[in-house]
Design a protein that fits this description.
Low-confidence stretches: 1-46
CATH class of the largest domain: Mainly Beta
Helix content: under 10%
Distance between the termini: 26 Å
Structural class: mainly beta
CATH topology of the largest domain: Immunoglobulin-like
Largest sheet: 8 strands, antiparallel
Number of helices: 0
CATH architecture of the largest domain: Sandwich
Shape: elongated
Strand content: over 45%
């Protein structure tokens, strides 16, 4: 398919084939060409979902009342509890390393009182750039409330708490995170290489983002300076290990997007390029 259009006097042609032509902008219209090559593996694709260990937990000015400490949220003991009167409130859970997660479970301390609490779930690889995967959910009247979402690679999980009344108190007994428990025999040995045509004009570097589909390719995985050792500004490319870097197994889909930056600012998003693992 070939599409022609005019943009501020510039004639842009977009061709959809093995290579995607995308216009992004840093003051001027710049072009990034993304091209994904995947070297396939013959490994199996068996996957197991299970409880993922949480290494650390923190919150905004966590209220400590006696033994109601914040670490009670990850001790696996429903007889302990943590309470907060500070709403909205963010609870940050650190998994210790990036892992593929697909759901959370939260055990409220007073679920039978049917208080109107709301929560959202966001994920991050660096605790700076966040992607929301569950928005404005209601807590269940049963003890455990589960939120499921498209599997996504994350190291940090943020539980954002809110309520209709600033006088409300949120009491939580435990938080659990579930995701992929990898089998070393099923991880494969693939490499995915991104190649793109260098932008015209002054460019200081590129940001690479990825996710399980085009709309969720917003988790930053690389910040590549054009002066980086081994990087060629004239023939830019970067390679990722599907398991070690992307936490992806055979059968998964991985999408990438790029943004270029310079002293002037940061560009818009490129279109996504995707590859099956």
């Amino acid at each position: 398919m070939k599409v022609a259009m005019n943009m501020r006097g510039h004639h842009l042609t977009v061709r959809f084939c093995a290579t995607l032509f995308v216009v992004i902008s840093i003051g001027l219209f710049l072009t990034v060409i993304g091209n994904v090559h995947a070297h396939k593996s013959l490994q199996g694709s068996k996957q197991t979902t299970g409880l993922i260990k949480i290494s650390a937990v923190s919150a905004l000015n966590p209220n400590k009342v006696g033994s109601q400490i914040i670490t009670n949220l990850i001790d696996g003991n429903l007889n302990t509890i943590w309470k907060t009167k500070q709403l909205p409130q963010n609870i940050i859970l650190d998994l210790g390393l990036s892992q593929m997660i697909s759901s959370t479970r939260i055990a409220l301390g007073a679920h039978r009182k049917k208080r109107v609490h709301r929560y959202s779930i966001s994920i991050s690889l660096d605790s700076i750039n966040w992607v929301k995967v569950a928005n404005n959910r209601s807590f269940s009247t049963s003890q455990w409330t589960k939120a499921s979402f498209t599997p996504v690679n994350a190291r940090y999980v943020k539980v954002s708490l809110n309520s209709v009344s600033h006088k409300d108190v949120v009491a939580i007994r435990d938080i659990e995170i579930y995701g992929r428990i990898g089998n070393s025999n099923n991880k494969g040995n693939q490499k995915i290489t991104l190649n793109w045509r260098p932008n015209s004009g002054r460019i200081d570097g590129y940001l690479v983002f990825y996710g399980p589909n085009a709309s969720m390719a917003s988790a930053q995985i690389s910040d590549i300076s054009v002066n980086s050792s081994g990087f060629s500004p004239l023939t830019p490319s970067i390679q990722y290990d599907t398991w070690l870097d992307l936490n992806a197994l055979p059968g998964d889909n991985v999408c990438f997007r790029l943004r270029a930056y310079s002293a002037v600012g940061i560009s818009g998003w490129s279109s996504a390029v995707c590859s099956g693992v």
